Amino acid sequence: MISRRALELATAVLTGGFGVAVVTSSFDNGIGWSSAGVEAGTFPFLTGIIIVLGSIYNLVRGVLPVASLANVRVAITQIELRRLAGLFVPAAIFVAAIPPLGIYIASALYVFAVLAIPQHQSVPRALAMAGAASLALYVVFERMFQVSLPHGALAAALGF
Amino acid sequence: MDNLAELLHGFTIAVTVPHLALMAVGVLLGILVGVLPGLGAPNGVSLLLPLTFGMQPVSAIILLSSMYWGALFGGSVTSILFNIPGEPSSVATTFDGYPMARDGRPTTALATAFGSAAFGALVGVVLITFLASWVAQVALAFGPAEYFAVYFLAFASFVGMGGAAPIKTVVALAIGFAIAAIGIDTVSGSVRLNMGIDELVKGVSFVVAVMGLFGIGELLVAVEEEFHARAVSSRIDWREVFRAVGRLPRHGVALLRSAAIGCWMGITPGGPTAASFMSYGIARRFSRRGRYFGTGEVEGIISPETADHAAGTSALLPMLSLGIPGSATAAVMMGGLMIWGLNPGPMLFVDQKDFVWGLIASMYVGNIVAVVLVLLTVPVFAALMRIPFVVIAPLIVIICVVGAYSVSNSYLDVVMMLGFGVVGYLFKKLFYPLAPLVLAIVIGDKAEDAFRQSMLMSKGSLGIFFANKLVTCLIVAGIALLLLPLVLQLARLWRKPASPTADTTSQEKVII
């Protein structure tokens, strides 16, 4: 169970962290006015400052008990969290599997695993859908629109 | 009258067999992405973008804009039949559309929605026809300072009128600007904000951001709630369609008011979502049957639908004539324009007459095509909703991955897309608006360039933004919009010092 407050806090820290990264990174390009006009780091520096200040405001507003947001106790329940993980974790594994396996094998495995392992579909049907998804990708992108998708290290090792 | 001659010329471009076919394809694909949860107009259009690079710009924009119209219609279908908004902008349609459909009048609800949507779109297109070239003419005289002022006004109006918490909007905007700055700086040629990752020199494409924010993010929001598509009958009774459309003129006041709200919100980038909520809220307050809203009132469907489509259509006006998109989808289309080698902004009306007027004419035709096609295909797409979500979700993930990869054949983009997905989920969950973020990614560079050019002209003095009447007005209006939420807050505190908490919850319903 994750509270609204924790979620607000995490997001504000995330945006604030990005802001800090932008500010520090913009020093490399110079800030302010030079003979060539406004220096390249100025605009990112200002946006970074705005992000940091805004994040601090959101942080305080999200955490303070006076704020109305504190009334919303639960943002994500246990069951919802499980469903979220059920979608995101396989998707992340799929993305991680693309460089070694290539997109065709990875997406077929991904579709099969998501459908067959929680037993949403029978194994033969899941196999058929996995094959169809992979084939459709190949036909539409590689053949019809001539967009080359990543074939992966495995295909390279096999000489494709 | 010049405009009408140009428009007729535009029709000769738009009404050809290949272009009509493209419209039909675009509308059908649009309804598809509109119906499917997790895929919406912004990422539908960005998915199609890589496939248009070989096309003529006119054909490409006709395909993409038709997809937009289709998506706007498709979102209403699921709102009415399933109580599941397919698009954020059709959330307000569920309030009265679903109750009416559930009470055994699905055809009436759908026909009312499509009829008023078509009216809203028509008003938007007429506005573009007569206003766009005039605005472009004015804008031809703009220098960098005026341009920066217009950009500033656009961003400020998100803060002042977007409906989300103002500081959250500011943060979203600023993050968009920072992302736009990543990569090679167009003025000095130096590499910025690559955070030590060499590949980031190429910058972060808005397509990658859109795929993650709207695609993965929306999927994550959708998966949280168990989907139980309790569909009401999706059979269309054609006689009732004509009867329902015939009854629309009785609600002329609501139609006109909603269209006006929609156009206003579309041009000053408030976006279709804010427009539909605002229109619904105002209709509930002013309609004679306002207290019956929520139980299947006709005007409860007319108001959000008309405003939604009027805003969606008129969002193209500032995109064409000023180079400032009025909605997230318009921002994606503008990104496409730049990739096709066109320079969005007033010069389009001088250099690319065929493109501009072909597009405007296609908007008239495309919306008619959309109404006909959506009515014909309602049963088909309603059946699509019966496919379990667990089957659709991995397919949408794969589509988003391929979409992000195909922008520049980079694996890093895929990883970033997934990261944007998490951000999109958090932002949606906590009511940070996404449209300004995307908008800032697309036009952040242009706004910065305008600022730096004006600084060069004035040798570093901010006085250039107050040098003449026009630019002063724009800047002052922008500052006023920025301060508007603060003033409202103070006024509220002054009137009701005891209860500062009640309003934020209602305010939070308006997202993006």
Automatic annotation (TrEMBL), chain A:
<feature type="transmembrane region" description="Helical">
    <location>
        <begin position="123"/>
        <end position="141"/>
    </location>
</feature>
<keyword id="KW-1133">Transmembrane helix</keyword>
<keyword id="KW-0472">Membrane</keyword>
<protein>
    <submittedName>
        <fullName>Tripartite tricarboxylate transporter TctB family protein</fullName>
    </submittedName>
</protein>
<keyword id="KW-0812">Transmembrane</keyword>
<feature type="transmembrane region" description="Helical">
    <location>
        <begin position="43"/>
        <end position="64"/>
    </location>
</feature>
<feature type="transmembrane region" description="Helical">
    <location>
        <begin position="84"/>
        <end position="117"/>
    </location>
</feature>
<feature type="domain" description="DUF1468">
    <location>
        <begin position="12"/>
        <end position="150"/>
    </location>
</feature>
<dbReference type="InterPro" id="IPR009936">
    <property type="entry name" value="DUF1468"/>
</dbReference>
<dbReference type="Pfam" id="PF07331">
    <property type="entry name" value="TctB"/>
</dbReference>
From TrEMBL, chain B:
<protein>
    <submittedName>
        <fullName>Tripartite tricarboxylate transporter permease</fullName>
    </submittedName>
</protein>
<feature type="transmembrane region" description="Helical">
    <location>
        <begin position="322"/>
        <end position="343"/>
    </location>
</feature>
<feature type="transmembrane region" description="Helical">
    <location>
        <begin position="259"/>
        <end position="283"/>
    </location>
</feature>
<feature type="transmembrane region" description="Helical">
    <location>
        <begin position="389"/>
        <end position="408"/>
    </location>
</feature>
<dbReference type="Pfam" id="PF01970">
    <property type="entry name" value="TctA"/>
</dbReference>
<dbReference type="InterPro" id="IPR002823">
    <property type="entry name" value="DUF112_TM"/>
</dbReference>
<feature type="domain" description="DUF112">
    <location>
        <begin position="20"/>
        <end position="439"/>
    </location>
</feature>
<keyword id="KW-0472">Membrane</keyword>
<feature type="transmembrane region" description="Helical">
    <location>
        <begin position="414"/>
        <end position="443"/>
    </location>
</feature>
<feature type="transmembrane region" description="Helical">
    <location>
        <begin position="355"/>
        <end position="382"/>
    </location>
</feature>
<feature type="transmembrane region" description="Helical">
    <location>
        <begin position="20"/>
        <end position="40"/>
    </location>
</feature>
<feature type="transmembrane region" description="Helical">
    <location>
        <begin position="464"/>
        <end position="488"/>
    </location>
</feature>
<feature type="transmembrane region" description="Helical">
    <location>
        <begin position="171"/>
        <end position="191"/>
    </location>
</feature>
<feature type="transmembrane region" description="Helical">
    <location>
        <begin position="47"/>
        <end position="69"/>
    </location>
</feature>
<feature type="transmembrane region" description="Helical">
    <location>
        <begin position="109"/>
        <end position="135"/>
    </location>
</feature>
<keyword id="KW-0812">Transmembrane</keyword>
<keyword id="KW-1133">Transmembrane helix</keyword>
<feature type="transmembrane region" description="Helical">
    <location>
        <begin position="147"/>
        <end position="165"/>
    </location>
</feature>
<feature type="transmembrane region" description="Helical">
    <location>
        <begin position="203"/>
        <end position="223"/>
    </location>
</feature>
